[in-house]
Amino acid sequence: xxxxxxxxxxxxxxxxxxxxxxxxxxxxxxxxxxxxxxxxxxxxxxxxxxxxxxxxxxxxxxxxxxxxxxxxxxxxxxxxxxxxxxxxxxxxxxxxxxxxxxxxxxxxxxxx
Length: 112
Known about the structure:
Elements: H1 4-9, E1 24-30, H2 35-51, E2 56-62, E3 80-85, E4 90-93, H3 99-105
Parallel strand pairs: 1-2
Antiparallel strand pairs: 1-3, 3-4
């Protein structure tokens, strides 16, 4: 028989097949370490950390190293951020410096 403190210390398993309901999945497409790419990554991380801490997954895809990945999300300009989850899919091009534009354009909301 385990006591409550032992039960609380055990890590909880999260289902690998079903993501948390409030998770936001983002992909940022860049082309090397250009000033716009670096700024977009910095700005997007700042926005995510401020408005959605612990609920987002950000994958950075450098099209200089993996140009074939542009086709999947139909990327025509960089930097571009794609929000895959929650649906609907949204895309935004630019350095992501305008926080309000990013939040509205990607249909993101503060997690409380």
